[in-house]
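TASK: fixed-backbone design
INPUT:
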């Protein structure tokens, strides 16, 4: 099975907690995690600047298409056990207009929102 790559801000507690939550609900091997700050990310995806991946999560589909921010969310939902059905919400009229604003607000306030998230488990080694 081809793998989806998820580039995220590994230094953000909210981002790391959300990534851990995602990985707990995704079949093993479906998603490769790649911290934005890693040299591997810079080498493999030089077209994605560090500032870009710190601004919004980046998802690279198995066929090489890059989805950023709120556009990445339906692709991640489709990979999750028990959450695939929720991807349809992004096709509802109006959601496509509101989602960018909501995503940008959360992204801009993610460090402040991190105090609300207590990380229960570290990311499993086999899913990094």
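OUTPUT:
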């Amino acid at each position: 099975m081809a793998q989806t790559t998820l580039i995220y801000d590994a230094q953000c507690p909210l981002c790391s907690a959300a990534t851990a939550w995602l990985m707990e609900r995704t079949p093993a091997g479906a998603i490769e995690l790649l911290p934005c700050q890693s040299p591997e990310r810079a080498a493999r995806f030089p077209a994605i600047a560090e500032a870009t991946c710190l601004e919004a999560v980046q998802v690279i589909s198995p066929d090489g298409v890059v989805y950023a921010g709120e556009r990445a969310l339906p692709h991640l939902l489709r990979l999750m056990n028990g959450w695939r059905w929720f991807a349809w919400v992004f096709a509802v009229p109006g959601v496509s207009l509101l989602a960018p604003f909501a995503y940008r607000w959360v992204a801009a306030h993610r460090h402040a929102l991190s105090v609300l998230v207590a990380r229960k488990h570290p990311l499993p080694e086999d899913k990094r």
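COMMENT: Strands lie at 4-8, 31-35, 58-60, 66-68.
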